[in-house]
Amino acid sequence: MQQDASEDAPPKQRVQDEIRKDIILGALPPGTRVTETALASKYGISRVPVREALRALEAEGFVESKPYAGSTVSKIPVDDADDLFFVREALESATARRAARRAAAQFDSGAPSVEWWQARKVLAGVLDEGDAAVAQNRLDLLPELNMRFHLGVAELSGSSSLTALLRQISGKIEWLYATDVNTRGKESWTEHRSIMAAIDAGNAAEAEKLMAGHVHQSRQGYLSRFASDPV
């Protein structure tokens, strides 16, 4: 089993990742009051990194803090969903296109780089984990795996700028995905194999088209559901 990278992260980053994950998966629902003392006890850490983590999560939009009222978990960003999906579709279409072009270049060179092979191997593992989760009906595992897949494609693109931009919104995307995972989770996951096949084949136009369609379908499904079922 692959070691969780968060195990080697600094205390603040580790607890920040844990709190964010609990918010995304609903263990800390919107409106929940969160205190440094309670969170320090929950995660077995001192209050200082918790305080720093809450400030960072507030900047990300996961936590709201008000004077004399403390901190609470933010509402799921339904109002921002359309804009987030719009940005995501543009970003991820570009990363898929660039990833396919880079794959073609790697194989044309006759000796793909170790860095590229390692990134592709990680993605293969993510796809296998997701397939197993779907087979076992463990849909709760898909939000994180979905995020890892899409960030993995961005890594394969070789564009540090596009990858950085996607990372900035990846948490919100995972949050939205988690709220809708029982509706489109299985179907959405199976689409990843086709996207990956186009990338491996070096077919930039097809990879771009499939990724754009994949994100667009997620957007349409999410918005049609939550337009009449506000969170």
Polypeptide structure, described:
It comes from Arthrobacter pigmenti. InterPro entries: GntR_C, TF_FadR/GntR_C, Tscrpt_reg_HTH_GntR, WH-like_DNA-bd_sf, WH_DNA-bd_sf. Keywords: DNA-binding, Transcription, Transcription regulation. This is DNA-binding GntR family transcriptional regulator. The chain is mainly alpha-helical and 231 residues long. It has a three-stranded antiparallel β-sheet. The two termini are 35 Å apart. 34% of the residues are buried.
If strands are numbered along the chain, what order do they take across the biggest sheet? 1-3-2
Kindly give the count of domains: 2
Q: What is the class of the largest domain in the CATH system?
A: Mainly Alpha
Tally of helical segments: 9
CATH architecture title of the largest domain: Up-down Bundle
The 3D shape can be described as globular
CATH topology (fold) name of the largest domain: Four Helix Bundle (Hemerythrin (Met), subunit A)
